[in-house]
Amino acid sequence: xxxxxxxxxxxxxxxxxxxxxxxxxxxxxxxxxxxxxxxxxxxxxxxxxxxxxxxxxxxxxxxxxxxxxxxxxxxxxxxxxxxxxxxxxxxxxxxxxxxxxxxxxxxxxxxxxxxxxxxxxxxxxxxxxxxxxxxxxxxxxxxxxxxxxxxxxxxxxxxxxxxxxxxxxxxxxxxxxxxxxxxxxxxxxxxxxxxxxxxxxxxxxxxxxxxxxxxxxxxxxxxxxxxxxxxxxxxxxxxxxxxxxxxxxxxxxxxxxxxxxxxxxxxxxxxxxxxxxxxxxxxxxxxxxxxxxxxxxxxxxxxxxxxxxxxxxxxxxxxxxxxxxxxxxxxxxxxxxxxxxxxxxxxxxxxxxxxx
Length: 356
Known about the structure:
Nucleotidyltransferase, domain 5, 356 residues, 12 helices, five-stranded mixed sheet, 41% helix, alpha/beta, elongated
C-alpha cells in the first residue's frame, strides 16, 4: 500500500535528505518513506538502500502509525536515572550564581565545591563530582571560565565616540588625522638561549629563563590617511617627554589644521595646575584640534592597532641585551614600516546605535 504524504511532510523529509550533517539512520528512514510515496515496492526500496524487506516494512509501518514522529528511536531500556530532572536544574541554577552566596571561599566554582553546595542546601540528596561535570557539559556551562569586560561610565561616551568615528570614516579633506599615544613599560629582555626556529610538525621554541635589562617608553603618532608612523623612544613618560614628541609632530605636519586623537591620560590634558596643552597649542598657532576618547574607550585610538603589531613582531620574542638594542629594533621597525608597509587601517566600526 502506497504512502500518501502531505506537502508539509514531503518538504520535511526532503530537507532531511538535503541536509549534509543529518544522522545516517534518519537519512535512510526518510529515503524509505519518500521512495514508498513515489510507488516503489518494499523489495525495490530494500535493494536501493542495501537493507532487508523486514527493516523497510518496520519503518514504513511506524510512519503510518505515528507519521513523522515515528521516524525517531523509541526510549531504550537501561539504568534508570539516579538524578532527577529537577535536581539537574538545581545544579545548573547553582552554577549560575556566585559561589560566595553559598559561603564558598573560592571565587569560581569547582566540581567539588559545586557538589558540596547543592548537597548542603538540600537541593540534591547525593551526587558525585563526575555527575556534576556531566550535567555542566550537557548544559554547555563552564563556571570556571571568566571573561573580562569593561563598562564605561562616561556620560558623554556616545557623543565622544561618534566624533572620533566620524573623523575616521569622513576624514576632512586636507586636514591630517593623527592618532597619538605612548606604549610604556617595554622591557628589554635577554633570553639565555636564542629562539629556535620552527620545524615541520614542531613550533618554534624559546627559553623560558630571561633577564630584565630595563624598560623604555615609545611615543608614536599614526596618520590614519597614509599609515605613516612617527615615533620616539624615551626613558620616562613625563609631560616634558610628551610635549617634546608633540613638537616633532608639529614640525612634521605643518598644515593649517591638524586633528589629534588622544586618550584621557593626565599628561595629555590641561590640569588644575596649568593649561599645558592649551599653551602648547597656542605656541603652534592653534593649528591642532584635540579629540579625546571616552573613558575606557582608548580602543578607539588607531595607534593601539599599530602597537599590537609592534608587540607581535618586535617585542614578544625579541632578545635585547641592553635597552639601546630595544630602541634600535623599534626605530628600525618604524623605518621599515614607513618605507615598505605603511597603509591605512580598514576601519569598519561606525558607532553604536543611539540608546533610547
